[in-house]
Amino acid sequence: MLVGYTAPMTLAEKHAKLRSLLADYGSALVCFSGGVDSMLLLRVAHDVLGDKCIALTTVSVTMAKSERKAALELASSLGVRHEVVESRELQRPGFAENPTNRCYHCKAELLEIALPAAERLGTKAVLLGTNLDDLGDHRPGLKAADERGAHHPMVDAGLTKDEVRTLSKELGLATWDKPQLACLSSRFPYGTEITTERLRQVDEFEDGLRALGFRQLRVRYHGEVARLELESAHLARALAPDVREAIVGLGRKLGFTFVTLDLAGFSSGSLNQLIGLRRARA
C-alpha cells in the first residue's frame, strides 16, 4: 500500500458519516423543497433526530404548483413535522430584475425565513440539501447561505449527485429518479424581468409537457419565444405530428408566438453559459 494513500469512502461510509454529522447537531430545521437532495437529507435527519427534526418549505410564485403539492405529500410520507411559509422573493429588491446573482437573493430570502423559524421552533441548525457537485456550478446562493450560517451536511459527508440518487434508492425513497428541478426563475435569461404572469406561462407550459409524457424538461422564456429543452432521447417524439401540434397549440394558448425545440436537449443551468459568453466578449 502506498504511504499516505487513503482509500475513497464507500457510499455506506458516507451515509454513516452523514448520520454522525446530523447527530452532532442535536436538532435541525431542514429546508425542504421536495427535490431529490432535500428529500434524502430530510429522511436521514429524521432517522437520526426523530421529532427534533423539522422540515420547512417556503412557497411562492417562483415554485411550480406541482412541486408545492409534492413537497406536502413527501414530508407527510415521512411523518415529519412540516412548516410551510409563504415567501416573497419577487418583491425583494434586486430579484425581479434577474441579475446574474439572482440566486443570492432567493437563498437570502429563504434563510431570512428559516433562521427565525429555527429559533422559534427550538432547533439548533438550519440545513440545506447541497451536494458536492453543486459546488462546481454558478451558485451565488451558496454565498448567501454561508453568510447566514446555514449548514451543508451532505457536502461535509462527501456525497455527489449520483450518490444521492443511489442512496435514495437504497433507502426506498420514491424521489431517487425524480427529474432535476429548479426554481422557475431559472427559466429566464439573466436581465429578463421576472413577473408573476411570465412565471405562470412557464409553469403551465411545463405542466402541459409533463402531461404529454415528457419528464426531464425546461421551458426557457425568450419573450415571444418559448425554447423547449427536452431529453435528447425524446426529441424525435416531440416532432411526431400529433405531439408537435399539441405542443405548439399549448404554447400559443399560453401567449407565446413561437415555440422552438432546442436540438442540444435538456441541460440543467444552461442559461449560466451566457455568463461566460458575456465575460469573453467584454
Which keywords apply here?
13% strand, 7 strands, 282 residues, globular, 4-stranded parallel β-sheet, 45% helix, Rossmann fold, GMP Synthetase, Chain A, domain 3, alpha/beta, disordered C terminus, 3-stranded mixed β-sheet, 2 domains
Topology of this protein?
Layout: H1 11-25, E1 28-31, H2 36-49, E2 53-59, H3 65-78, E3 81-86, H4 102-121, E4 125-127, H5 140-147, H6 153-156, H7 161-170, H8 196-211, E5 217-222, E6 225-230, H9 235-238, H10 241-253, E7 258-261, H11 273-281
Structure explained in plain terms:
The protein has 282 residues and is α/β, with parallel strands linked by helices. It is built from 11 helices and 7 strands. The chain is globular, with a radius of gyration of 20 Å. Strands 3-2-1-4 form a 4-stranded parallel beta sheet, with helices on both faces. Strands 5-6-7 form a 3-stranded mixed beta sheet, covered by helices on one side. 45% of the residues lie in helices and 13% in strands. The chain has 2 domains: 11-177, 3-Layer(aba) Sandwich (Rossmann fold), CATH 3.40.50; 184-281, GMP Synthetase, Chain A, domain 3, CATH 3.30.300. It has helices at residues 11-25, 36-49, 65-78, 102-121, 140-147, 153-156, 161-170, 196-211, 235-238, 241-253, 273-281; strands spanning 28-31, 53-59, 81-86, 125-127, 217-222, 225-230, 258-261. α1 crosses α2 (36-49) and α4 (102-121) packs parallel to α5 (140-147).
